[in-house]
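Worked example 2:
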Amino acid sequence: MANKILKNETPELGQPLTAELLGRAIRARRTQSGLRLEDTAALCGVAKQTLQNIEKGTGKSKLETILQICKGLGIKLKIDAWPEDKS
């Protein structure tokens, strides 16, 4: 019998982005979708260890890899507009 996937709560997303926050958000999305680490890594085309490190907010990963995982899980990242320089 397969192990049940424990759903992680969605972290508070309205705060400045850190590696830890993004990792927690990725883990929450994965577990809330009922996906195992191995299955998500295969779905996103990354190594299981890479995904695990990103979820923990540890290690160094390429931005391209992180964006690939976000896309695979349907996570959208956005950059807020900043005020125009009036000088």
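The helical segments are 19-32, 37-44, 48-56, 63-73. The mean pLDDT is 92.
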